[in-house]
């Protein structure tokens, strides 16, 4: 459970860092630029902690997929990035893929712990 908390922190801090990247105006604004470094540093550190028990393929897929979907939503809600049917479908596919990947990982772990007959 601690690993999924660390992964959640990694996702949140990556979203923070990416948002600060937008505000940094090409690293020409100091405070948002510092926010990028801190956000991404915390994100990678937290991701590395989560990798102690979560498989790399699963952790990275969740981290990058959730970060992508949530960052896209922030862009739509805060900076009026374009949103249309294709954007909505794409976000649903990302989220659906994360759910399926997580489900298949848990099914694989259950199969590993089932005694052979």
UniProtKB/TrEMBL annotation:
Membrane topology classification: Multi-pass membrane protein
UniProt keyword annotation of Transferase present: no
UniProt key word Protein biosynthesis: no
Ranges in a coiled coil: none
Keywords, sorted A to Z: Cell membrane, Membrane, Transmembrane, Transmembrane helix, Transport
InterPro entries: EmrE-like (IPR037185), Small_drug/metabolite_transptr (IPR000390), Small_multidrug_res (IPR045324)
Recorded superkingdom: Bacteria
Localization per record: Cell membrane
Transmembrane regions listed in the UniProt entry: 27-47, 59-79, 85-101
Family, per entry: Belongs to the drug/metabolite transporter (DMT) superfamily. Small multidrug resistance (SMR) (TC 2.A.7.1) family.
PANTHER family on file: MULTIDRUG TRANSPORTER EMRE, SMR FAMILY PROTON-DEPENDENT DRUG EFFLUX TRANSPORTER SUGE
Protein name per the record: QacE family quaternary ammonium compound efflux SMR transporter
